[in-house]
Amino acid sequence: MRVREILLALTLAGAALAAQAEALIAIVIDDMGDLYSEGRQAIALPGALTFSFLPHTPYAVQLAKQAHAQGREVMLHLPMQAERGNRLGPGGITQAMSEDEFRQTLRENLAAVPHLRGVNNHMGSLLTRRAVQMDWMMSELQQHAVLFFIDSMTSPRSIARYAAQGHQIPTTRRDVFLDNQRDRDSIRRQFALLLSLARERGAALAIGHPYPATLQVLAEVLPALERYGVRLVPASRLIAAQQQRSPQLWHASLSP
Q1: What pLDDT sits at residue 70?
Q2: Which domains does the chain have, with CATH numbers?
Q3: Torsion of CA 116, 77, 150, 47, to 10 degrees
Q4: pLDDT reading at 9 higher than 80
Q5: Which of 39, 164, 183, 244 has the smallest number of Cβ neighbours within 10 A?
Q6: CB under 8 Å to 127, separation ≥6 — which residues?
Q7: pTM score of the predicted model
């Protein structure tokens, strides 16, 4: 075993012994729907993972139905305008749209993925900073009572989750990206960070993708979560737990 793997193992083991109470983590696997084989491998992983599907992709409907049949939560991974003008793909929403165009595109995206429980942004480093468009989006989502919103935090200046709170939509933010670097050692370090934040705060949420290295690491670490005093839960359960732990803070954030 390499030195850094030994250090990581010791870090995880030490933190497990220090854990005072069970902490919660949620892991959202983004970018589902484009690739069938990788999507199937992700859904086959153990535990209460949450899967977020890009709208109008070739396998979104089929894989979302499979995930739902296995009791997993399904989300819409909503393409939103990025600061650098990245290609959005089908269903992208932008600040250039009229309100009618914006809302209609959002409705079509919501209808494109079955069994939806929540929404998070795909890219969106520009649009999540726009108050008008975020108000349009959240007022539309507000009409779908089962939906929650997760701010992927592609921009530190995002106001998306505050807009969600303003419309009383259950919401949280991403704490950790597992695989910005797609090598297994980096992903293991990010997973260790997720566990550390969860034990410190009581709950933490990570976003990953159906990359081969990510799937390999998750297959290794997910069966061992109990020994670290951490429990993997669906995204909606983590959001509910966060709101129960800090109800005054959450309701205070609804104020202007």
Answers
A1: 97
A2: 3-252 (3.20.20.370)
A3: 70
A4: no
A5: 244
A6: 80, 81, 82, 93, 94, 95, 121, 133, 134
A7: 0.88
